[in-house]
Amino acid sequence: MSFLEVNDLHVEFPTSDGLVKAVDGVTFAIERGETLAIVGESGSGKTVTNLALMGLLSKRAARISGSAVIKRGDEDVELIDLADEEMRQIRGKNVAMIFQDPMSSLHPYYSIGDQIIEAHQVHNDVDERVSKARAIELLDMVGIPDASERIKAFPHQFSGGMRQRVMIAMALVNSPELLIADEPTTALDVTVQAQILKLLRELQEELKMAIILITHDLGVVAGAADRVNVMYAGKIVESAPVRDLYANPLMPYTHGLLASIPRMDRRAGESGKRLSAIAGQPPSLIALPAGCAFVPRCTFSNRVSGGASRCESSMPALTEHVPGHFARCHLEGASL
Amino acid sequence: MINYLARRIAISMAILLAVSFAVYLIFAILPFDPAALTCGKNCNNPAIIEANRRRLGYDLPIWQQYFVFLKGLFMGRTFGEGAATIFCPAPSFGYSYQEHACVTNSIIEALPVTLSLAIGALVLWLIIGVGLGILAARFRGRAADTGSTIFVLIGTSLPTFLTGLLLLVFVVVKWRILPYPSGNYTPLFENPLAWLNTMILPWITLAFAYAALYTRFVRNAVIETLSEDFIRTARAKGLSEKVVLRKHTLRAALAPLTTMAGLDFAGLLGGAILTEAVFNLPGLGRLSLGAVIDFDLPIIVATTILAATIVIFMNLLVDILYAFIDPRVRVAA
Ligand SMILES: Nc1ncnc2c1ncn2[C@@H]1O[C@H](COP(=O)(O)OP(=O)(O)O)[C@@H](O)[C@H]1O
Ligand code: SF4
Ligand SMILES: [Mg+2]
Asked: Per the CB < 8 Å rule, is B326 touching A109?
C-alpha cells in the first residue's frame, strides 16, 4: 500500500444556484519521498481536493465522500470523516500545507518567530526555548539570512519570496511526511519562483518527505515533480510520470496546457508568449454534461471513432494506455 | 516612536488652538451682545451692561479677548476691579453671570457625572456588544445569531430618549424598582449604592444603542476575519478551534474596535444630552443645554472647547494604542 491513497473522493457544495461538484471521483496515490504535481486551470478542484484531505473544509459548506488513507507509523488512518481532535493531531504534524499568497497567509500581528514557535509548540510538549531554537534552525535551512535576529520581525517586513520561505519553515518545523504546496509560487515573480521550487526540491532530498505540488502552470512541473495528475472540472483527466506526459500527452486538454507553456528556447520574438492558450472557459460545475466535460473546447473530438457525439454522451473512463500512463479520453492512444 | 509621539502631540495642540479660536470667532460673529446677556432677560440698564462689558473684557477686540482667555487657562483670571473683584483660578474658562460662578467650577461639578455615565455605559456596551457579536459569528445562522440580529434591529432603531423614557415608565413609575431621579448626583465614593441607583438606568439607555451597533460590527468583523488566509494557516498548523478563535481571530477582528470605542467614548464625554435630560442628571450635557437655553456664552464656549479637546486627545490616544496592537502601524511610525 502507498503512503497516501485517495479513492473516489467527492466534494460537493450545496449552494443557492445548485450543487457544485468541485471534486468528482478523484483517485490517486503517493509514495513516501515522491512529488506529485496536480495541474489544472483555476477552478478545477485542486485546492478543494487537498483541503478535504486536511479536514479544512467547513463541514457546513461541504459534503465529502470517498476515502483517503494515510500511513501513520504502522497505522492506517482514514482522513475523511476523522474526528476533529485526531485530524488536528495530524495537521501540521504528519501533513503540512503552504498556500498561494504568503502575505495574507501569515498573521499580520505576530512576529514570524512567534508563529513558527506556535506551530512547534502545538505538537511538542517542550520548553519554548527548544521551539525557538528549532524555529531558528528552520529559518536558517530555508535560507533566511541572520535567522536569530529576523525571527523577531513581522511578515510585512519581508519580501514575497522571503515570506514564502517563512511559510515553508513553519510547515516543516515538525518534519511532516507530506507537504501540500498549493500554488506556492503563483504570487511570486519568475526568478523568485525558480528559487522557491529549487528550495522545495533540496528540502525534499534532505527530509525525504512526499510533496503534493499544486499549480495551474505545467511549466513549473518539469524539473520539480515525479508524477503529474491533470485535473479538469473536478476529475483527473490524465496521470503520468512527468517525462511521459511531456513527451506523449494522451488527452487533448493536457496537450493544450503543454502548448500554452511559454518556452525559453523559442526565438526571441516568440519567447514568453502564450502561443495557444486553450480557447473557451471551463464548464460550470453545477450542470456538468453527461459525457466528457472538455467537449466544447476540444479540437480533437472529430477524430474519435464515433465522432463528437460519443464524447458528448458518454464519459470516458480513466484508462491505462501505456503502463503507468492514464488518460480519460475516447481517442485511441497516441493520436495527438 | 518618540519622534512620532512628539509630532502627534504637537499637531494635536495646533489643532486644538485652531479649534478654540474658531469657536471664539463664531461667537463673536453671532448677532448677540454678550454683555447685554449678562444682566438677565428683561434688563435694559445700559449702565450695568457697560460695566459688565468692561468687567468681562467684551470691550476688547476679538483676538485680544481670545488671548486673555488663553492666558486665563494657564494663570487664572481676575474679573473687574476694587471691591467687586472676582478671581477665577487656573484653568479659568471664564465667568458666568447667569450662574454667578467661575465656569470652571460648573464644569468640575458636572464632569464626574458625565464621566460616570460614559465609563459605565462604555463598559456595559463593550461587554454586551463584543460578547454577543462573537457569539453570533460563531453560531452563524443559528438561534444565537437570529437573537442577536433582533437585538441589533431594536437597538439601532429605538431612539435613546425613547429607551430612556420606557425604562423610566416601567422600572421607576410602574414597578417601582428604582426611585425617581432626583436631579442630584451622589459620587461613587460617598455612597456607592445611591450612585449605582442613579446611574444604572442611564447606563442601560446609552449602552443599548451602542451595544447594538457594536454587536453588528463585531459579528461582521469576526466572520470576515475567519475567512482570512491566515486563519486557514492557523488551522493547518493543527491549532484547536479555541486558539484559532481567541488568539488569531479576535486579535485581528477586534483591533478596529479600539478606534471606534475611543471616538464614541470621546463623543459621550462631551455630554450625552438626551440621556442626561431624560434622567435629570446634572452632567456636562445638561450644563450645555441649560447654557444654550439661557444664552450663557462663557459656558457654551467652555463646553464646546472642552468637547473638542476630548475628541482631539482621544484620537491621539487611540492612534498610540493602535500602534501597540498593529505592528504594521508601529513600524511605519
Ligand atoms: N465553499 C465553497 N462553496 C461553493 N463552491 C466552492 C467553495 N469552495 C470552492 N468552490 C468551488 O469549487 C471549485 C474548485 O475550486 P478550487 O479547488 O479552489 O479550484 P482550484 O484550486 O483548482 O483553482 C471552484 O469552482 C470553486 O468555485
Ligand atoms: S473525450 Fe472527446 S471531447 Fe473529451 S478530450 Fe477526448 S476527444 Fe476531446
Ligand atoms: Mg486553488
From this structure: yes
Among A325-334, B117-126, B253-262, name the one with the lowest average pLDDT: A325-334
Predicted confidence (pLDDT) per residue in B112-135, tens digit: 999 999 999 999 999 999 999 999
Q: Where are the beta strands (DSSP E) in chain A?
A: 4-15, 18-30, 35-39, 63-72, 75-78, 95-98, 178-182, 210-215, 227-232, 235-241, 318-322, 325-328
Any domain includes A129: yes
CB B182 within 8 A of CB B280: yes
Looking at the 3D structure of chain A, how many domains does it have? 2
Q: Which of A119, A154, A174 is the last residue of a domain?
A: A174
Which residue, chain included where needed, has cell 488569531?
A: B248
Q: A145: cis peptide before it, omega within 30°?
A: no
- Give, for ligand 1, the residue of A9, A11, A39, A48 to mutate: max count of ligand atoms closer than 8 Å to Cβ: A48
Choose the mutation target among B227, B230, B231, B248 for the interface with A, i.e. most A CBs under 10 Å.
Answer: B230
pLDDT for the residue A271: 44
Residues of A at the B interface, defined by Cβ within 8 angstroms: 54, 56, 84, 88-93, 96-97, 99, 101, 104-109, 111, 118-119, 122-123, 154, 156-157, 167, 170
Q: What domains are defined for chain B?
A: 2-103 (no CATH), 108-327 (1.10.3720.10)
Q: Are residues A4 and A146 in the same domain?
A: no
Model's pTM, two decimal places?
0.88
Domain of A119, in residue numbers? 108-174
Q: How many angstroms from the chain centroid is the CA of residue B255? A: 21
The protein residue whose alpha carbon is closest to atom 7 in ligand 1 is A13
Question: Are residues A264 and A218 part of one domain?
Answer: yes
Task: Examine the domain organization and report whether A157 and A204 are in the same domain.
Answer: no
- For residue A285 and ligand 1, the question of a CB distance below 6 A is answered with yes
Report DSSP letters for A74-120, one per residue: TEEEE-TT--HHHHHHHBTTTEEEE-S-TTTTS-TTS-HHHHHHHHH
| Atom of ligand 2 lying closest to residue A251 CA | 5
Using an 8 Å CB-CB cutoff, list chain A residues near B252.
107-109
Instruction: Give contacts of B333 with chain A, Cβ < 8 Å.
Output: none
Q: Where are the beta strands (DSSP E) in chain B?
A: 77-79, 86-88, 95-96, 101-102
Residue-wise pLDDT for A62-73, tens only, equals 999 999 999 998
CA–centroid distance, A296 to ligand 2, in Å, is 9
**Residue A183 domain-assigned (yes or no):** yes
Confidence bin at A265 (pLDDT 50/70/90) = low
Task: CATH number of the domain at A246, please.
Answer: 3.40.50.300
- The answer to whether residues A195 and A82 belong to one domain is yes
